[in-house]
Amino acid sequence: MIEKDVVIVGAGPAGLAAGIEASKAGANVLIIDLNIKPGGQLFKQIHKFFGSSAHRSGTRGMDIGMLLLREAEENGVEIWLKSTVIGLFPGNKVAVEKGLENEAKEVVTILAKKIIVATGASENVVRFKGWTKPGVMGAGAAQTMINVNHVKPGEKVVMLGSGNVGLIVSYQLMQAGCDVVALVEAAPKIGGYAVHAAKIRRAGVPIYMKHTIIEAIGDETDCVKEVVIAEVDDKFQPISGTEKVIEADCVAIAAGLKPTVELTRLLNCEFTFNGVFGGFIPLHNKNMETSVEGVYVAGDATGVEEANTALEEGRIAGIAAAQSLSLIADKEAEEKKDAIWKRLEMLRLGPFGERRLSAKEVVLAEYLNKVGMPQAEIKLKG
Amino acid sequence: MQTKNKGADTMCLRVENHVILEVDNNVPLVQITVDGKMIAAKEGEPILAALLANGIKINRYTLKKQEPRGLFCGIGQCTDCAMVVDGKPNVRTCITPVRDGMVVETQNGLHKEVERK
Amino acid sequence: MALENTGYLEYEELVQIQTIPDEERFKKGAVAVIECVQQIPCNPCEAACSRKAIIIGNPITNLPIVNGDECTGCGICVSKCPGMAIFIVNKVHSETKATVAFPYEYFPIPTEGEEVKAVNRKGEVVCDGKVIKVMNPKAFDHTPVITIEIPKEYVDQVRSIQRRRAE
């Protein structure tokens, strides 16, 4: 059986950052990812990131991705691509369907001293008549097509949802040469940053507030050709007589994300429900360790936030895993983690961030309550 | 413009110019066969991207209701884009790169071999 | 805030929320106008200005304030703002014309001398304009900054140009 100090699931910002930190401390690290390329969703983030200078703000997500990949390589982090973790078993065994040349697959079991689950999140769906028709897709899927694969998912797009994903992807669809013929939002208020909304308004995108999609109508092959929208009442029910038909060959759904938690579920980690973070998440402590000793989590898989918070949480998990392997001195590790928690606090400020700041505190408190003191702290006090 | 189902290669949905992205329009092309028809694909791109660029939006039909499915998550999570690739069913085309000479077929239900069992 | 319901700000609203240069400063020439009205943890504009004319300070969620005495209207901050919320306004460009500079990341990028349709914050065409400057150096990282000349009376409204299509 292959043995590794740290096995990380997912090569997105959280997984890469965790791998870099653990590797820097001297751990033998393997990251496993099912995609063709590493970087998770960073390479489709072609916009300049918000944040502080400490977080390379003003740099495009894809460029941060390149920097991370280079850092991972320099630090000798091993990455298996086209490989899917199909099971985690007691005793820290990781079952992997490893991608080989010529699309062949081979099942491999790895014995990991520490496991970091950084599996990210998946898009939520809004169901309306015709939502399964070709042409209806997640906003993230549309974003992947234009920014990573350089292919348009359609010419005329109706965007559903005014959170930052809906606003940013609308903008990027226009950058790729598509038209965004409507942005539809059921709530009375725009969910994302006003500056993102402002830039698509300037580009002439009609924003339909208190509206929803009633139906996607297909052509003779059943691919989307028209979208019916309608105004909704205070209970989000469509108001009869307000229907409007819009010609479009693509519907992009930006209705939020939910953490991808199958693997932490398999291990019977303690869970909690947290609406702010997008649903059920594994409880974790300030080391990002779950209720199962030696199993850590980071990034959207611990609650949906953004790339910068994922990066920072990944760093914490990587440092904590190395610390528990005695690869890094406790004092040094604690100082590093403290500094990162302070930076995380800064990222969770303001009217948009403070909900996440307090939600994180609730999760950490619940961990202490249900699971107890983090291992590292016990060791320090002992 | 009406979007045609299969092999409507008259329509080009490729992003050719972009202010931010460096779009390489000189990537070597490979040929793949889709339901018996040859199409050009950019070397290394996912099968799904090559199909979309050629105006093909349907990847499979469902088992019970024979409804079409196409790109939905784009990152290998949902399986809506599964097709039969080189005779093998349930291949997620959004995360599987093209290879010269690859034979891709629209998947009906669970694909015939599986259904027979 | 109408902004949250519509996605754009009325100029009057902007003036109430954000500190923008006063008319005395506008009389002296080009200056940065920052239309950033929510407390987002973000500060690259502050670091972008070598003259330290943009101040955010602590906490990072403070709205940026432009020091009109230091700002020369150079436009570097325009390309750095991830929210594309900074504009350079010159109300005294000539007797009858004003200029507005804004970030523009759509293909094709307009060229100097080109006649364009100037749009307001809602994307409505309000007047004709002429591109007088296109800045797109490497340091701007693919965020071109376009300066257009427009009739003076539209200067508080115009914030971009109508998006054009590839031929």
From TrEMBL, chain A:
**Which UniProt keywords are present, listed alphabetically?**
Oxidoreductase
**What SUPFAM superfamilies does its record include?**
FAD/NAD(P)-binding domain
Domain spans labelled FAD/NAD(P)-binding? 4-314
GO MF terms, alphabetically ordered: oxidoreductase activity
Query: Is this entry keyworded Oxidoreductase?
Result: yes
Q: Name one Pfam family in it.
A: Pyr_redox_2
Q: Does the keyword section mention Oxidoreductase?
A: yes
Among InterPro entries, the record links this protein to: FAD/NAD-bd_sf, FAD/NAD-binding_dom, Metab_Enz_Cyan_OpOx_G3PDH
PANTHER family under this entry? ANAEROBIC GLYCEROL-3-PHOSPHATE DEHYDROGENASE SUBUNIT B
From the Swiss-Prot or TrEMBL record, give the protein name. Thioredoxin reductase
Q: Which organism is it from?
A: Anaeromicropila populeti
From TrEMBL, chain B:
Q: Which residues form the 2Fe-2S ferredoxin-type domain?
A: 28-110
Supply the Pfam families for this chain: Fer2_4
PROSITE patterns under this entry? Answer: 2FE2S_FER_2
Q: Which InterPro entries match?
A: 2Fe-2S-bd_N, 2Fe-2S_ferredoxin-like_sf, 2Fe-2S_ferredoxin-type
- Record keyword Membrane present: no
Q: Name one GO molecular function term.
A: iron-sulfur cluster binding
CDD domains annotated for this entry? fer2
Question: Which UniProt keywords are given for this protein, alphabetically ordered?
Answer: Oxidoreductase
What is the recorded name of this protein? 2Fe-2S iron-sulfur cluster binding domain-containing protein
**Organism, as annotated:** Anaeromicropila populeti
From TrEMBL, chain C:
Which keywords fit this entry according to its UniProt record? Iron, Iron-sulfur, Metal-binding
- Keyword Ribosomal protein recorded: no
Q: Where is the 4Fe-4S ferredoxin-type domain?
A: 62-91
Tell me which Pfam families the record gives: Fer4
User: Out of the domains of life, which is the source?
Assistant: Bacteria
Cross-referenced InterPro entries: 4Fe4S_Fe-S-bd, 4Fe4S_Fe_S_CS
* Name of the protein in its database record: 4Fe-4S binding domain-containing protein
Q: Does the keyword Cytoplasm apply?
A: no
Q: Name one GO molecular function term.
A: metal ion binding
